[in-house]
Amino acid sequence: MNDTTPPNTPITRHLRITGRVQGVGYRWNMAQQAQRLGVNGWVRNRLDGSVEAVVCGPVVAVQALVDWAQRGPSGARVDGVEVTEAAGTFEGFLQRETAV
């Protein structure tokens, strides 16, 4: 995100989170955090051990969720969060099944 984007501008971002992020409640906690922040989208595990998410909402809320993703829940060890632009709009926040 950049400093010139108005804080309520809706944006969509794709996140790829690596580290010890499966088997520690990462998806459930991300969904709870997204709901608290008013962010829509989805999160799922990947077979490679990473977690993937697409998040959509006001720039300040999405940035807050990205900041949370860099820490994760207490049992996680986040090694990295790759954030790229994405498209789409969503209603609610879903935990999806594991993807390839």
Describe the structure.
The protein is α+β, with helices and mostly antiparallel strands. The protein contains two helices and five strands, in the order βαββαββ. The protein has a five-stranded mixed sheet with strand order 4-1-3-2-5. α1 (26-37) packs antiparallel against α2 (59-69). 26% of the residues are buried. The mean pLDDT is 94.
Which whole number gives the mean pLDDT?
94
| Discrete helix count | 2
Low-confidence sequence ranges: none
Task: State the secondary-structure class.
Answer: alpha+beta
Q: Gap between N and C termini, in Å? A: 28 Å
Helix content: 10-25%
Q: If strands are numbered along the chain, what order do they take across the biggest sheet?
A: 4-1-3-2-5
- Order of helix and strand elements from N to C terminus: EHEEHEE
Shape assignment:
globular
What's the number of extended β-strand segments?
Answer: 5
- Rg is 12 Å
Characterize the main sheet: 5 strands, mixed
